[in-house]
Amino acid sequence: MDNGWVIYGSLLITGAFLLFDPRKGTRPISIMILAVLAGIGVSLVGIFQGSNANVDNSLIAFHTYGAQGVMLAGNIMAIAVGASETRIGLTRARSIASITLGTVGLIAFPLFMTDVFTGWLWNIGLFERAVIYPIMIAHALLGSGVAAAQRHRATHPQAPLTALVES
Q: DSSP secondary-structure letter at 58?
């Protein structure tokens, strides 16, 4: 699982750099920065496990900062991607879903952190998943939406410029 988080983080960063063009303004640059922060965060979670040994040797700080980084940057990225909508090939429904998922994750984040910092540890797994799963679902929506848009462009090529001018 730890290797999976590192691979996921690496793929997230790579995918953002392949998909978003920083020459097209501040929104793609913002999304790329959020992808790098989330990718590094989730990689730190995989590299520095939340184990008792890492608590004892203080390496748990890397796990903690990585987890908080991916939780915040990932959900904000989901909202930013949803707001980009047709510029990146998402349908309206996928855009709304991405914005909604990011919002749910951001609302769940303070609940999770309150549960952690108060020491209640009441159903901590539920709150953690309420923050993380929206990010992963939003990434799946983004990837499948971009793939669907590329399939559509491949099967429905645009008319040549001369045909558009003549009509």
A: T
Contact 138, 106 (CB under 8 A): no
Three-state secondary structure call for residue 158: coil
Give the type of residue at 119.
G
Question: Both tokens of residue 22?
Answer: 């920083």
Residues of the chain with pLDDT under 50: none
Helix (H) or strand (E) holding 8: helix 2-19
- CB of 65 within 8 A of CB of 95? no
**In this structure, which long-range contacts are made by residues 87-91, counting pairs with CB atoms below 8 Å and at least 24 apart in sequence?**
87/24, 87/27, 88/19, 88/20, 88/142, 88/145, 88/146, 88/149, 89/145, 89/146, 89/148, 89/149, 89/150, 90/141, 90/142, 90/145, 90/146, 90/149, 91/145, 91/148
**SS3 label, residue 123:** coil
pTM of the model: 0.86
Inter-residue contact 20 to 32 (CB < 8 Å): yes
Report the candidate in 114, 89, 104 with the shortest Cα–Cα distance to residue 135. 104
The model's pLDDT over 31-65, given as tens digits with 9 standing for 90+, comes to 999 999 999 999 999 999 988 898 899 999 999 99
